[in-house]
Structure formats: C-alpha cells, structure tokens
C-alpha cells in the first residue's frame, strides 16, 4: 500500500473512531432542563371532553361535600343554583309518589306528575335560541306570588321591565316558571330563558307545587318538605 493510500486509510479510521465516541457519550443537559416536567405526549390522544367532564364531576362532588359539612344552608335545602341536599332522581320520585315537574322543550309542554301519575299538563313558551332554557335536574329554590322582572341592556335596545309577573317559581339561578300576560303565543319559544305559562296555569302550578303557601306576598324559600323536583330536557 502506498504512503498516500495508507495515510488516507488511517485518517478515515480515526474519523470513524471519533464518531463512535461521540455517539456513545450523552450530551450535557442545559442548566435547568432537568427541572422541567416530561413532555405530555399522552395528551395528544386524550379525550378532552371526557377529561373536562370528569374534572367538573370531581369539583361538583367536592362542593357537595362542603355543603354537607357546612351548616350555613340550614334550614334551606336548595341553593339558588339548583344544588340540593335532596335526592335528584326521577325514578325515585316516581317510586315514592313525589310531586315533580317535567318540561319538554321539544314539545313546549310542562307535565305535573305525582309519582308515575300525570296530574296536569300545560303548553309553555321556553327560551328563544339566543336565550335558551337551561336543561337538567333541579329543585325549586324560591317562590313569590308576584314581582317585577327586568333585564337586558338599554344601549342595545334589549332592556325590558315587566311589573306584576305572577306565580314565580325559581328552579335554577334566574330561571323560573311564571305567568306571562304579555303574549299569547304559547307553544312557541318566546322568553329570555324562563318557562312561560298562562297566568291561570302558572297559578295552578304554584299552588300545586307549594301547598303550604299562606297567601302572603313574601318570598318563600323551599326546604326538604316542599322543594319540588324539576326535570327540563329537549
């Protein structure tokens, strides 16, 4: 082998050796990199809606336990957001002969049940698309025979003020059953989210769901004896 050839072969051998050493030697970490958490590769395949629902369930359970441990809710069984210490189960209400209210938004109909027996039904007007009626299971948390209802915004032209709205029963935040004297278009969504009934139908429902009403104009808070179960669904 000639000298130039031998030199080239040695150079290639040395280069291969250097590559081999570099490959086996780990690169030094930059300062602080070992403090970072591992990349969340598993998050790419996570079912995010399911994770959000599980988190919501855990938070709800924690809040429920806090309510159980906190005596400040006494003597009221239902908070303004519909959270309750009472059982929230339609099948249970059916089996025990409990009074409960069903609202079908698709049918625009309210059903008054006692156990599994239908006592009465009414055509309603629920919330329009921009202000839909909330769905879910709730308990009525407050009632009043009459009040002024107002809301919206003057600047945008959505402000409203309705005096003497009668037979009001709140079941979730500001969502309520009540009489509506300003329209007669029942069977069609018309409200800002509440469940509108005729004044006569709202009065019947008020007296049926709250038999202990004494005729006063005061606000009535519910307790474990008279917090009517409400099921609103599509």
List the keywords.
10 strands; L,D-transpeptidase catalytic domain-like; about 25% strand; alpha+beta; single chain; about 230 residues
Structural features, described:
This protein is of the alpha+beta class. It has a domain at 77-233: L,D-transpeptidase catalytic domain-like, CATH 2.40.440.10. The protein contains four helices and ten strands. The strands form two sheets. It has a five-stranded mixed β-sheet with strand order 3-2-1-10-4, sandwiched between helices. It has a five-stranded mixed β-sheet with strand order 8-7-6-5-9. The chain starts with a helix and ends with a strand. The model is unreliable at 29-47 and 67-74 (pLDDT under 50).
Number of helices: 4
Residues in helix, %: 25-40%
What is the CATH top level name of the domain at 77-233? Answer: Mainly Beta
Low-confidence stretches are 29-47, 67-74
* Spatial shape: elongated
CATH topology (level 3) name of the domain at 77-233: L,D-transpeptidase catalytic domain-like
Return the structural class: alpha+beta
- Biggest sheet, strands in spatial order? 3-2-1-10-4
- Overall pLDDT metric: 77
Q: Can you identify the CATH superfamily of the domain at 77-233? A: L,D-transpeptidase catalytic domain-like
CATH architecture of the domain at 77-233: Beta Barrel
Query: Strand portion, in percent?
Result: 25-35%
Q: Report Rg.
A: 32 Å
Largest sheet: 5 strands, mixed
